[in-house]
Amino acid sequence: MLFRSLEEIGSYENVDDFIAGVKAGDQKLMGFGHRVYKKYDPRATLVKKVADDVFSILGKEPLIEIAVELERIALSDEFFIKRNLYPNVDFYSGIIMLSIGIPLNMFTVIFAMARTVGWVSQWNEMMGDDSSKISRPRQCYLGATKRDYIPMDER
Asked: Among all residues, which ones are annotated catalytic?
């Protein structure tokens, strides 16, 4: 996750070392790249403007300074450009959530909530199509069929 990487980097001064690790294959750059958008994610353009507005009101915390520097480097470095590694919508929405104090353990929930409208719309469209007699999802879950729940305080 991006924010664990930001915490690992620790400070603005360590960004270059982290980037060197990414280029060497020792680190992963989270929040960059997209399966569909091979150039700059158009949604990210809009959310970045909101992020800039949030920063102008709240200021930038140290982790956000690191994220902004990662963005600056990735947008100007041929290594990332050749690999289509541009900040995606989750990069910007994540740094907004961090800025406004949403706990890290709630990020996945909020990301999923934001996508629910699209998931339900797709299902509704499929159900309204008389030529669609059956849903054929393209993926099959092959993971564990039963897993025991471990309470948070025991993890």
From this structure: 34, 90
98-105 LR contacts (CB < 8 Å, sep 24+): 98/3, 98/61, 98/63, 98/64, 99/51, 99/54, 99/55, 99/58, 99/60, 99/61, 99/64, 100/54, 100/58, 104/1, 104/3
CA distance 31 to 2: 6
The residue behind tokens 């990210």 is 44
- pLDDT tens digits, one per residue of 14-56: 999 999 999 999 988 888 888 888 888 888 889 889 988 998 9
Helix, strand or coil, per DSSP, at residue 32: strand
* Cα R_g (the chain), whole angstroms: 19
128 DSSP assignment: T
Global model pTM greater than 0.85 = no
